[in-house]
Amino acid sequence: MISVNETESYLKNKISENTKDIMKVWEVFKAFGKEQVEGEDEIALLFQCGVYDFTGEELFYFDFVRQFTIYEGEEYSRMEQLHCEFVFEPTEELRKLETSLMYFDYEGDVENFYSEVESLEEFRIPLKYQPLRLELYQEEV
Description:
The chain is α+β, with helices and mostly antiparallel strands. It is built from five helices and five strands.
């Protein structure tokens, strides 16, 4: 079982940072989303996308996220999110897309969440485009 401190490097080893194959990354992320992480009580997953100006330039972000709640002993310490984030030039079609789905909103197996994500226009439409890059990073939130 891996620890939260190892999750970023673990996922990077499974996904080449230079890949722009969204479906390959998605399949690896889905498998990773089912893996046990040390100290994790519940799996927390998120799919989000939209056009944002995080860097001074509007870009379309297409992001698979796994969230971890960190405890020190019995005390809550912080939350961290591990992102598999594709970045695109914001075409007219992509500018119309924005969503945020949390796994907590779905009953039962995580597969229900994955199926729901895959059924969304916000997931399917960006697959037609070539991303500028994939960014894999973990951050405290």
